[in-house]
Every structure is written in structure tokens, then in C-alpha cells.
Amino acid sequence: MANVTVIGAQWGDEGKGKIVDWLSERADVVARFQGGHNAGHTLVVGEKVYKLSLLPSGIVRGTLSVIGNGVVLDPWHFRDEVAKLKGQGVEITPENLQIAETCPLILPFHRDLDGLREDASGAGKIGTTRRGIGPAYEDKVGRRAIRVCDLAHLDDLDLQIDRLTAHHDALRAGFGEAPIDRAQLMADLTEIAAFILPFVKPVWLTLNKAKSEGKRILFEGAQGTLLDIDHGTYPFVTSSNTVAGTAASGTGLGPNGAGFVLGIVKAYTTRVGSGPFPTEQENDVGQRLGERGHEFGTVTGRKRRCGWFDAVLVRQSVAVSGVTGIALTKLDVLDGFEELKICVGYKIGDQSFDYLPAHAQDQAKAEPIYESIAGWSETTAGARSWAELPAQAIKYIRRIEELIGCPVTLVSTSPERDDTILVRDPFAD
């Protein structure tokens, strides 16, 4: 059976939650492979709205859901998110939710450091969610992280805490903060361990067994390709690799397990927080897109910046993530625009570019080269077939396909899961 990897192909917030939910009904396993609870996925199922930030979206459907080793896990947030979803009637047990033994933990001092750094950065702020994601990843690659498996061996943690405090106490002193309270840290870990440990499994074994049995695995990415630590608009990026290739390293399944790579793309462009955004519209157009698209972050509630569709950036995302097909979301937000614009290149000084250069200063100076296309007055909201779309909307979609060099696999026309036009089934063998 085919596997599917779902990633964001812009700056996140593309509507991945709905698409993953839509696909998870036919998946046997849903796996998160990177990021932390800085990701936000909103699922609309009938009259209920579920807001997830750490748990895989498949859990709402009762699909076996796993949190891979590439995720950094805040155990207290995990406990609270489980409780919130249970309160909405979602059944969550160790039988349908697993956490990789090797996930690094986000600890209270990671959150402290995240906020202290951001506050001290002045104009250099990068827009962190202040949830400790970056500092936790730093400790992972610095080989001093406390991992999920350590919760079963708290009596043997002294040497690891020595390494942690040697690093963090010096940083905290620089900010005028007291050293880490080791006794309190141990008490906190002891308190949360009993809740976390029943969910802990060797997830790589679970996934490899599922693969050998021909089961369908759905890999769920967080954030977007343009926020990738290597391939995004650095330094205004997240702290993990968000590209599709990370599905392998972030779960332990292997690089041949990713299957069909589905890139989620809005019919326009949005971004949360700081960083370059060549097609941003700080005018009535941007206001209209934001209001019609309800553009506020699921996790932070921050207002998203809005602008025209940037085909150059999506083409880059398609290339670096090996996208097989895209899911075009929020097409209905463009209903009623007399004219639409698509970015087809950039001008930086007297030079033209068909890609976004890597340096932040060049990115900040990039001026979009636009192609105009007529809009449509009819509604696309709720359309479930090509026949229900205005001819001009279809023309817009076809032009996007040409410019990004990738076919549209499905089109989403509202937050409702069934308001979807399927062109090609990603799970098809």
C-alpha cells in the first residue's frame, strides 16, 4: 500500500489539519515527525472544532497516532492536550497513541530561555512562539537533552543534569536569573513520568511493522517548507527540518517510506511573525484576505500577514521537498476579486531572479514581478467537483500548476472536510 507525507509548502498555516484529517480516515497510522507544540492544526468535524498543536491529527478519528523521535515533547502540554481532547469526547489510550522513546523533552527552563532571548533581541526578534522549541533542539544536538526514555530511569539522571546545568546555568546567569533548581526539576519529572510512560514505545518498530504488513502510513508535517532550518528564510525559520525528507529521520522508518508527498498550498500567501514576505499586501487587499480567510494563528492567535500567491516560493518548496502533488486550500477566499496577481519572479536592484536568494538582506529587498489574471464573481465555497467551479477559477488553478511545475492533487473549498475536490488519490497504489 502507498504511504503519504503531508507537508506545508509555504510558511505554515496552509490548512494541513483538514487535509490530514480527510486522509487519516483511510490511513492505518498517522505519524508526526518534527516540530513541537508550536504547530497548530484546526480540524472541523461536523459541528465540532478540534485545535491540536502536538498530537497527530489522526487521533480525532481514532487512527493509531504516533509522535516520532524528530518531535520535541513538552510532557505537561501533552498531558493538557490529551485532557482537552478527552473532554471533547476523543478516546485517547496507549493503544491508539504512541510516543517515541527518543523524543527530547521540552523542560521549564527551555521556555524561560526562549522568552529571555526573544525579549533581549530588540529589533532582531525572529518571532518565536516562546514555547521552548529552539532551546530543546539545541540541547538535543548538544547531546545534553533529557529524553522520554529517561523518565523511566530518573534515579540515573545525575550526570545528564550535570551537563544540562553546566550549559544553562551560565546562560541564566547572563540574564540575571537564578540557577536551575535541580530538586524542583526532579520533582516535576517524577510527577509527569507516570502520565507519559504508558504511551512510550519504540515507534520505529511500530512503523516498520506496519510497513511490512502493507498498512497505509500518513506522515504529518508541521510548519512549512519555507520555515525549514536549512531551506527556509533563515534566520526567520523554525528549529527543525520541515521538508518531506525528515519523515524518514524523524520516525525511523527509512527514506523509501515517505511515499506520495502532498504539499499543502493556500491559493494566496500568508506568514506569521517576522521575516521577508515579497508579496505581502499591507493594504485593503491584505485586509480582505485576512478577514475572509480568518487568518489568525491556531497556537498563538497572532494575526497573519497576507499577500498574493507566490509561485516562485512554492516552486522552490516543490523542488526541495520532492512534492508529488499539491493540495490547494482556501480557494473560496478569492471569490469576488476582480483581479488576482501571481508572483512569477523577483527584482533585486537591477537583477532578476526566478528563485529567492539565500541571504536575508537580498530576501528583504526582493520586489515581486507579478502576472495578473482575471478573478471570478461566482462562489467556489463548498464546491466538490470541477463542474461546480467557475471557469476562471479553474484557469487560475491551471496557471498555478504551470508556474510551480507540479499538478494539483486536490482542491479545498471550505474548512469542512468533505468540501474537497479530489483530482488524484494520494493513497492510490
Automatic annotation (TrEMBL):
Gene3D superfamilies, per database record: Adenylosuccinate Synthetase, subunit A, domain 1, Adenylosuccinate Synthetase, subunit A, domain 2, Adenylosuccinate Synthetase, subunit A, domain 3
Which SUPFAM superfamilies does this entry report, sorted A to Z? P-loop containing nucleoside triphosphate hydrolases
Q: Which reaction does it catalyse?
A: IMP + L-aspartate + GTP = N(6)-(1,2-dicarboxyethyl)-AMP + GDP + phosphate + 2 H(+)
GO: which molecular function terms? Answer: adenylosuccinate synthase activity; GTP binding; magnesium ion binding
Keyword Magnesium set for record:
yes
Record note on quaternary structure = Homodimer.
| Primary role | Plays an important role in the de novo pathway of purine nucleotide biosynthesis. Catalyzes the first committed step in the biosynthesis of AMP from IMP.
Descriptive protein name = Adenylosuccinate synthetase
Q: Which organism is it from?
A: Sphingobium yanoikuyae ATCC 51230
Question: Gene name, please?
Answer: purA
